Amino acid sequence: MKRKASAVWSGDLKTGKGSISTESGTLKETQYSFGTRFENGVGTNPEELIAAAHAGCFTMAFSAELGKAGFTPTSIHTTATITMEKTDAGFTVTESHLDMTAKIPGIDQTKFTDIANGAKAGCPISRLLNAKISLDAKLEA
Questions:
Q1: Regarding beta strands 30-33 and 17-22, do their DSSP bridges make them parallel or antiparallel, or are they unpaired?
Q2: Residue 80 pLDDT more than 90?
Q3: Is there a contact between 32 and 17 (Cβ–Cβ < 8 Å)?
Protein backbone atom coordinates (compact mmCIF):
# COMPACT_ATOMS: atom_id res chain seq x y z
CA MET A 1 0.00 0.00 0.00
CA LYS A 2 1.27 3.47 -0.87
CA ARG A 3 -0.23 6.85 -0.08
CA LYS A 4 0.75 10.19 -1.64
CA ALA A 5 0.76 13.83 -0.66
CA SER A 6 2.50 16.76 -2.29
CA ALA A 7 3.77 20.20 -1.36
CA VAL A 8 4.43 23.31 -3.44
CA TRP A 9 6.45 26.27 -2.15
CA SER A 10 7.21 29.74 -3.55
CA GLY A 11 9.61 32.25 -2.07
CA ASP A 12 12.06 32.28 0.79
CA LEU A 13 11.47 30.60 4.14
CA LYS A 14 10.07 33.50 6.14
CA THR A 15 7.99 35.34 3.55
CA GLY A 16 7.22 32.52 1.15
CA LYS A 17 4.16 30.35 1.19
CA GLY A 18 3.09 26.96 0.03
CA SER A 19 0.30 24.47 -0.19
CA ILE A 20 -0.13 20.83 0.68
CA SER A 21 -2.44 18.42 -1.15
CA THR A 22 -3.29 14.77 -0.62
CA GLU A 23 -4.09 12.18 -3.23
CA SER A 24 -7.49 11.59 -1.60
CA GLY A 25 -8.40 15.26 -1.98
CA THR A 26 -8.96 15.71 1.76
CA LEU A 27 -6.28 18.38 1.65
CA LYS A 28 -6.40 20.36 -1.55
CA GLU A 29 -3.92 23.19 -1.85
CA THR A 30 -4.12 23.73 1.91
CA GLN A 31 -2.00 26.73 2.85
CA TYR A 32 1.12 26.50 4.96
CA SER A 33 3.89 29.00 5.67
CA PHE A 34 6.52 30.02 8.18
CA GLY A 35 3.74 31.73 10.12
CA THR A 36 1.61 28.59 10.29
CA ARG A 37 4.57 26.52 11.37
CA PHE A 38 6.44 28.71 13.86
CA GLU A 39 3.84 31.33 14.79
CA ASN A 40 0.04 31.33 14.83
CA GLY A 41 -0.84 31.91 11.20
CA VAL A 42 -3.91 30.52 9.44
CA GLY A 43 -3.23 27.22 7.70
CA THR A 44 -1.56 23.94 8.56
CA ASN A 45 1.99 22.73 9.13
CA PRO A 46 3.87 19.44 8.95
CA GLU A 47 3.84 18.89 12.71
CA GLU A 48 0.05 19.32 12.90
CA LEU A 49 -0.32 16.75 10.12
CA ILE A 50 1.95 14.32 11.99
CA ALA A 51 -0.16 14.84 15.13
CA ALA A 52 -3.34 14.07 13.16
CA ALA A 53 -1.74 10.99 11.63
CA HIS A 54 -0.55 9.73 15.02
CA ALA A 55 -3.90 10.30 16.73
CA GLY A 56 -5.75 8.54 13.93
CA CYS A 57 -3.32 5.65 13.67
CA PHE A 58 -3.19 4.99 17.42
CA THR A 59 -6.98 5.14 17.72
CA MET A 60 -7.43 2.59 14.94
CA ALA A 61 -4.69 0.34 16.37
CA PHE A 62 -6.30 0.49 19.81
CA SER A 63 -9.71 -0.40 18.36
CA ALA A 64 -8.15 -3.34 16.49
CA GLU A 65 -6.40 -4.65 19.60
CA LEU A 66 -9.60 -4.28 21.63
CA GLY A 67 -11.43 -6.34 19.00
CA LYS A 68 -8.80 -9.09 19.17
CA ALA A 69 -9.35 -9.21 22.94
CA GLY A 70 -13.15 -9.43 22.52
CA PHE A 71 -14.06 -5.83 23.37
CA THR A 72 -16.00 -3.29 21.32
CA PRO A 73 -15.47 0.35 22.26
CA THR A 74 -18.42 2.70 22.53
CA SER A 75 -16.03 5.59 21.85
CA ILE A 76 -12.33 6.40 21.70
CA HIS A 77 -11.11 9.99 21.63
CA THR A 78 -7.40 10.67 21.09
CA THR A 79 -5.42 13.88 20.88
CA ALA A 80 -1.76 13.81 19.84
CA THR A 81 0.56 16.66 20.76
CA ILE A 82 3.80 16.88 18.81
CA THR A 83 6.80 18.62 20.39
CA MET A 84 9.43 20.14 18.11
CA GLU A 85 12.60 21.47 19.68
CA LYS A 86 15.84 22.94 18.45
CA THR A 87 18.55 20.36 19.06
CA ASP A 88 22.21 20.14 18.05
CA ALA A 89 21.01 18.52 14.81
CA GLY A 90 18.52 21.36 14.15
CA PHE A 91 14.75 21.49 14.65
CA THR A 92 13.62 17.99 15.58
CA VAL A 93 10.33 16.35 16.52
CA THR A 94 11.32 15.02 19.94
CA GLU A 95 8.02 13.75 21.32
CA SER A 96 4.48 12.75 20.52
CA HIS A 97 2.15 12.65 23.50
CA LEU A 98 -1.16 10.82 23.17
CA ASP A 99 -4.13 11.70 25.39
CA MET A 100 -6.84 9.09 25.00
CA THR A 101 -10.22 8.66 26.67
CA ALA A 102 -12.37 5.64 25.92
CA LYS A 103 -15.67 4.05 26.87
CA ILE A 104 -15.42 0.28 26.61
CA PRO A 105 -18.11 -1.94 28.15
CA GLY A 106 -16.87 -4.86 30.25
CA ILE A 107 -13.14 -4.10 30.33
CA ASP A 108 -11.12 -3.74 33.53
CA GLN A 109 -8.44 -1.11 34.10
CA THR A 110 -5.49 -3.51 33.84
CA LYS A 111 -6.62 -4.98 30.51
CA PHE A 112 -7.42 -1.48 29.22
CA THR A 113 -3.94 -0.21 30.11
CA ASP A 114 -2.20 -3.25 28.63
CA ILE A 115 -4.08 -2.99 25.34
CA ALA A 116 -3.53 0.80 25.13
CA ASN A 117 0.22 0.42 25.69
CA GLY A 118 0.39 -2.31 23.06
CA ALA A 119 -1.41 -0.09 20.56
CA LYS A 120 0.92 2.81 21.37
CA ALA A 121 3.97 0.65 20.60
CA GLY A 122 2.44 -1.15 17.61
CA CYS A 123 0.79 1.64 15.66
CA PRO A 124 2.66 2.20 12.35
CA ILE A 125 3.03 5.94 12.94
CA SER A 126 4.51 5.29 16.42
CA ARG A 127 7.04 3.00 14.78
CA LEU A 128 7.79 5.64 12.13
CA LEU A 129 8.59 8.41 14.59
CA ASN A 130 12.10 8.63 16.00
CA ALA A 131 10.77 10.37 19.09
CA LYS A 132 9.66 9.73 22.65
CA ILE A 133 6.06 8.53 22.62
CA SER A 134 3.99 8.91 25.77
CA LEU A 135 0.40 8.06 26.56
CA ASP A 136 -2.18 9.14 29.12
CA ALA A 137 -5.11 6.75 28.84
CA LYS A 138 -8.35 7.22 30.75
CA LEU A 139 -11.14 4.67 30.91
CA GLU A 140 -14.57 6.27 31.31
CA ALA A 141 -17.33 4.46 33.15
A1: antiparallel
A2: yes
A3: yes
Q: What CATH number does domain 46-140 carry, 3.40.190.10, 1.20.1070.10, 3.40.50.1370, 3.30.300.20?
A: 3.30.300.20
Transcribe 55-122 into DSSP letters.
HHHHHHHHHHHHHHTT---SEEEEEEEEEEEEETTEEEEEEEEEEEEEE-TT--HHHHHHHHHHHHHH
pTM of the model: 0.92
Give CA–CA dist 66/54, Å, rounded.
Answer: 18
What was the pLDDT predicted at 38? 87
Q: Which residue has the higher pLDDT, 38 or 71?
A: 71
Cβ-based neighbours of 6, under 8 Å, separated by 6 or more: 20, 21
Give the residue range(s) of CATH 3.30.300.20 domains in the chain: 46-140
The closest alpha carbon to 115, from 123, 87, 52, 48, belongs to 123
What was the pLDDT predicted at 39?
A: 84
pLDDT of amino acid 125: 96
Residue 41 has pLDDT above 90, yes or no: no
